[in-house]
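Supplementary notes for students who missed Thursday's class. We covered one full example, reproduced here. Read the sequence, then the structure, then the short commentary at the end.
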Amino acid sequence: MDEAANDNSGPAVKRRCPICSRAASPEFKPFCSKRCADVDLHRWLGEGYRVPVALDDDMRDSPDPE
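Structure (token representation):
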């Protein structure tokens, strides 16, 4: 096996906070601070993040489960 392919000594990738784009902090990774981590959590809990779904014709005609 080629040892050069397993060399992990390359330059480290600097991650950015997905909320504010500042440098990520190791303590709050991948965020820069507790505030940005809390903002992200609030978005998840408030359904701010959604996955788009395409409904089939069968699903459109069926009644909502209650």
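Commentary. The first helix runs from residue 34 to 45. The radius of gyration is 21 Å. If anything here is unclear, bring it to office hours.
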